[in-house]
Design a protein that fits this description.
- There is one protein chain.
- 27% of the residues lie in helices and 33% in strands.
- With 179 residues, it is α+β, with helices and mostly antiparallel strands.
- It has a single domain, classed as Gcn5-related N-acetyltransferase (GNAT) (Aminopeptidase, 3-Layer(aba) Sandwich).
- The chain starts with 8 loop residues before the first strand and ends in a 12-residue tail after the last strand.
- The N terminus and C terminus are likely disordered.
């Protein structure tokens, strides 16, 4: 249902943890978004990657990476809040679980607490009942803490620089802060 969707937009009204109502919409990313996605991903890698054995020349090759993003653009989505684009994410369906990949936020630190609400809205819209996996840089403590507060747990370590975190199926759609 995810790749090749004909319905590439959804709009929902949600309440953030502070009680304010926001209009959240998801649209399919377009090839025009590839440049921004590349630059945001590069910034994360430059800030948090500790594995110096990576081929950074290839990882940072703008043409190669943007072409790769464009070839897979149907897996990328944009998040808009009250009409303003606030981020991107990529979801890959692995059958038993979904991989939340390349989540990048244009939001301020203060607004990041509501990111879980955006994911919930998207997963509920898709009526997903699958576990959600993601990779996070070990040095990105703010992101790790956000994911943990929202029910993700570290399930594996990948090399020296990343963790795999998982949130079980239906719990992927529980409200922010519920226990």
């Amino acid at each position: 249902m995810m790749q090749g969707d004909t319905e590439r937009k959804s709009t929902q009204l949600i309440e953030d943890p502070a009680g304010e109502t926001m209009k959240v919409s998801f649209t399919g990313a377009t090839p025009r978004d590839a440049d921004t996605i590349f630059r945001m991903a590069r910034r994360l890698i430059e800030e948090y990657e500790t594995d110096l054995s990576l081929d950074f020349e290839k990882v940072f090759d703008f043409d190669w990476v943007t072409k790769k993003i464009e070839r897979n653009i149907e897996t990328y989505h944009t998040i808009h809040v009250n009409g303003v684009k606030v981020g991107y994410f990529c979801v890959l369906d692995g059958g038993e679980g979904l991989e939340l990949d390349t989540h990048m936020s244009l939001m301020t630190v203060r607004d990041e607490a509501t990111v879980h609400e955006y994911w919930n809205t998207w997963f509920l819209w898709r009526d997903m009942d699958k576990a959600v996996f993601l990779h996070v840089f070990k040095e990105n403590y703010r992101a790790i803490n956000l994911y943990k507060r929202n029910g993700f747990e570290i399930v594996a370590s990948v090399g020296d620089s990343r963790y795999i975190m998982k949130k079980s199926s239906r719990s992927a759609c529980e409200p922010y802060g519920s226990d």
